[in-house]
Amino acid sequence: MIRSLALALTLMASLALAWLDIRVPAPAGPDAPATAYSEARALKDVEVLGQAPHPIDSLRHDQVRDYLIGRLKDLGLEVRVQNARAFHEFDLGGRQIISGADVQNLIGVMPGRNRNAKALAVMAHYDSVPGSPGAADNTAGVVSQLEIARALKAQGQPERDVVFIITDGEENGLVGAHAFYGQDPLAKRIGFVLNMDTRGSGGRTFMFQTGAGDGQTIDLFRRSAVDPRANSLAVFIYEHMPNDTDFTVSRRMGILGLNYAFMGREFDYHSPTATPANNQPGAIQDMGRQVLAAARAVAYAKVLPAKTPDKVFGDLFGKVVIAYPPLLGWLLLVVSIVFTTAAVLRERKKGEIGWIETIRAYSAALALLFFLSALASFVRDATLVPRGFVDQLPLLARFGWFEAALGFTMLGGVLLGIGALMQGQRRLWALIVPIVLGAACYLIGRDLIGAGAAVGAALFATPAFGRPVRPWSVVGAFLKLALLIALIAQAFAPSAAFMIEWPLLLITTGVLIASFAGGLDRPVALLACGIAAVLCLGWALGEIHMLTLGVGADLPAALGLFFWTAALAIVPLIAVTPRPISLSVFAFTAAIVTLGVIVFDTPPTARYPRATEVMYVHDADTDRYYRTDLLQTLDPWTEQALKADSGKVRKRSLFPLAQDPVFVADATGNVTARTPPPHFTCHAPNGCSDPVIHLVNAPYESLQPQLEAQDIQSVAGGDRHVLIDLWFGGENRRVILAVKSDRPFKASLFGTPLSKPTKAGKWLTVVWAQPPLPPGLLWIGGSQGLSLVLPHGAKLEVRYAAVVPGWPKDAKPLPPRPGNVMAYSSSDSTAEVGTFKIEQ
What is the residue-averaged pLDDT of the chain? Predict the structure, then answer.
């Protein structure tokens, strides 16, 4: 009874400690000290900026820009607008993408005492994605800039200039940051960057990325941070993810700094529900106070941090940051190895550990590692919520239940695995259970990763089970495997190794005390192992919470290793707990109940509405009109919207508007276009049909103005130069241009060669967003257009899509949306798609 109670109390205390670690602080009121950060003061700006969507190609964007210019001036800053054209190259799913826009970065300078010193940049972006008010992403970052500027001004003139960079076009591929760091003269004076962004509308703020060579940067962060959440594991993971923020640009420029974001309530990320009312109270306070502390430390410092070797770092329960050189990790491992060896040798002399059962326990520990990964995948699959950025929104609406289901399932898996090993179970069960689990992963979610992990569990579990294994053999085997994992991590990923090295130090200490106390079931041993378990498990659950928010919905199997590490803390307690298999039944029952809530309580609500993205599309190639659903879902409202013109719903390719075939239904034709289609010009003696791209056999520059007197067919062979002169009407729009050739070719945009060569048979896609313009034309062409150089005889295919906001006035309107249905992203817009013929 005492041993079961010790385990139960340990689990409850760990959960309480983790909750204290991840809860957001209370927001400061309007009467907070002038030099302090106040969310109440910042919320006045949130209410203005977060009223409506303000993507770069919207009229609302200009209103937000003008408001921010006024606020920067009110703060007494030196204010100017950087008007620039920029683009960003990246790969997405094997596709080469170029995203760009004409941007308007807002720059406010707070002069320091030493105007020649390297400046501090405080950075956030003010554009939102289409369809989202962006009250969190990234209004939270922008209003934090304003409140930080006010607080610094109240403190007195800083030592160096503080530059508040409110970037434009971050959602269009970081183009505002590229424009500033690539074109603005002030960029050369920036010596340190603090960037803010968000993923969701709540949660604790995490400092998740640093500049390369962050040794002194982390020292500064450790000294100045207020209730910090940060660790080098996040830096390691983020470097291997495809995600980017504006900080990515400054980091690649070699500028040191810190990148912050709060993460939680992810349903609201890029969603119409990202309103001021849905921001979690205290989330903006947490971001602002953390970044203000760092800004104050840098702005008033005589010397900025220099580049020094990276450090391993992490916070303890959001209160203190521990940082040290990577080599120190080896010392931590040596101590844990010594403690483990001493405890194991003592128990072996007592006859409590046998060689054969240790080998079996070691195999079982490996099996449990794979088993937990498979279980995490199964929980995700069992929610019956598809994967995908938008498809998984119903899961994000109930993410707390998902985390609870994961936690109960992992606990059940640990109790089942260790209990079966200790009580002695037939090898047949060790084979059947993982195989059934793997089959479920594949049949429910076509989850090959989960199925593969289950096969791994079966392979290692089969030789492990049979006769019972004693407690000390179990504990020794688990610690040895943990030490091996830690050694591998320390050798190949030292910045991430602390996640297992720190718990090991405490757990091995508790185990050594238990050995001297006379056994794992002695009161002193239970107390020592219990204290170590509470500290380790409480800390680990806080870290797992952040990891689950980051990768849990997309790659749940990756959580298996972290849950296994967390479970390591309670292995000594489970090893002496009577009938752990029986206890696993309660854990699995709780998991089933929480999964049932997700599966059966899924109707959309006004707070968590169903996403829809319907558009009115003109196919210029066939002169047909369609209503289409870009989300590839046919909920009742979407189906009603598509069939409004009595069209039959079917699948059709509308590339490059959508990468995969989408649902379409015929729509009424002859609808008046909101703006002229994108117009591509060519230069030839007899003119060109519209639209057209013209291929010539000489550089474009050499054809002016002689081309009109030249017979194009008589030019000799050689490289073929294609120039796309793209212009827009005065209305805002987004254009997608996709080009593909059967031969590799060179390309440049606005006179700048692309950094990566194009591949034969692969699409090169250019996405361009144009802000609203006065009546007239904006040329994106001439010698600054999209220029292609192809080998002679190469075949070229070009497709385009142009999107303008708003439903056509002459078209039958969309049916009214119920309160639990929302227009997502570019929904309710008008588009044209088409291809270009080639003249030679």
Answer: 89
